[in-house]
């Protein structure tokens, strides 16, 4: 018998998963609860209408207590986990919200039609045109004013933006023509920052590229499959590693310093991977797929630690892991100091014993 819901006994992390579905439902799964497969619905399914599917999820603050939700009907919402309610609703002029973020207390939404909308508290809207068919926008963690966009065809190639400027500070250039002198097709299905000057892209056409905006417009390194046809739908990064989801199911990990071959392969999903997310330690990889399952894999030994059937097709996912509070940090410091005190006392007593033994030896001689 095939078990859809699985949780390994060795998996004891205090994680919570937030899943956005294609029908528009937002759910929470508490993996430490008695029933880790039972969701908490943040809104009634009966209140949803056709075309309100969730197309973007992003944390709204560093404490991970707010969730920014982007929908296919051009709506951006803010959900407050502590208040258990939606606290704000905005709407971009047109298009499907493919990505959403926040910078300088301003909401930023990217439309699949190519526009980036910056919404402030005074209902003022600033618009950038990034192309005509945008697949994803990402925000730099080191500098929240930097944005990266990528999409289908050469007009929507990788671009880096500063929200204080209306023109891109970097626009990538395609690789040289192939052996038949034909242009290599471009479709950056997902992009992300490795740091403030290095980026990585994954493509529906099967390539992975890294860029350094300080040196050149063309890719610095590139992975192109030779023996198999691959198509990448999404990616997630941690330090020098990039995890890419396949449209045919499965996840692969690459080291961006070489990009010669995948260093890990994660099996399990039978449907296209819709989203990937890593916890803050980088040890747990969360994925959602069109086979209506969400999974957590160990990035160390590649095993599936948690799997749950979510009924509706998941489109976006977030994973929340508890961060150390100030009290716990202080308690750890106090414990370390007490251990140091004990070791110094033991060393002191050991020195006394050694001195006594030396005296006895001298007297005996």
From TrEMBL:
Coiled coil: none annotated. InterPro entries: WD40/YVTN_repeat-like_dom_sf (IPR015943), WD40_repeat_dom_sf (IPR036322), WD40_rpt (IPR001680), WDR74/Nsa1 (IPR037379). GO terms for cellular component: nucleolus; preribosome, large subunit precursor. Pfam families: WD40. SMART domains: WD40 (SM00320). GO terms for biological process: ribosomal large subunit biogenesis. This is Putative wd repeat-containing protein 74. It comes from Lutzomyia longipalpis.
């Amino acid at each position: 018998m095939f078990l859809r819901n699985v949780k390994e006994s060795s998996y004891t992390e205090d994680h919570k998963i937030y899943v956005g579905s294609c029908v528009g439902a937002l759910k929470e799964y508490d993996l430490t609860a008695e029933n880790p497969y039972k969701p908490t619905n943040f809104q009634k399914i009966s209140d949803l209408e056709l075309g309100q599917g969730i197309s973007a999820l992003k944390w709204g603050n560093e404490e991970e207590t707010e969730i920014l939700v982007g929908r296919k009907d051009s709506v951006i919402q803010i959900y407050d986990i502590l208040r258990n309610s939606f606290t704000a609703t905005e709407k971009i002029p047109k298009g499907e919200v493919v990505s959403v973020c926040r910078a300088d207390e301003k909401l930023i939404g990217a439309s699949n039609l190519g526009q980036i909308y910056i919404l402030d508290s005074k209902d003022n809207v600033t618009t950038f045109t990034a192309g005509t068919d945008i697949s994803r926008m990402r925000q730099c963690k080191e500098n929240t004013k930097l944005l990266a966009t990528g999409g289908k065809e050469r007009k929507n190639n990788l671009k880096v933006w500063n929200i204080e400027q209306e023109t891109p500070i970097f626009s990538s250039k395609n690789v040289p023509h192939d052996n038949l002198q034909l242009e290599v097709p471009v479709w950056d299905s997902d992009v992300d920052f490795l740091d403030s000057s290095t980026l990585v892209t994954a493509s529906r056409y099967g390539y992975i590229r890294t860029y350094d905006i300080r040196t050149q417009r063309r890719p610095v390194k590139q992975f192109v499959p030779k023996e198999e046809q691959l198509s990448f739908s999404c990616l997630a990064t941690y330090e020098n590693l990039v995890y890419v989801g396949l449209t045919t199911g499965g996840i692969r990990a690459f080291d961006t310093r070489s990009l010669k071959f995948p260093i890990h392969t994660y099996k399990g999903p039978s449907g296209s991977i819709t989203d990937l997310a890593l916890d803050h330690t980088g040890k747990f990889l969360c994925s959602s797929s069109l086979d209506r399952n969400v999974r957590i894999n160990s990035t160390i030994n590649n095993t599936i630690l948690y799997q749950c059937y979510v009924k509706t097709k998941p489109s976006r996912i977030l994973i929340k892991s508890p961060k150390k509070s100030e009290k716990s940090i202080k308690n750890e410091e106090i414990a370390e100091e007490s251990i140091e005190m004990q070791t110094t006392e033991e060393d002191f007593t050991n020195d006394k014993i050694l001195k006594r033994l030396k005296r006895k030896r001298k007297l005996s001689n």
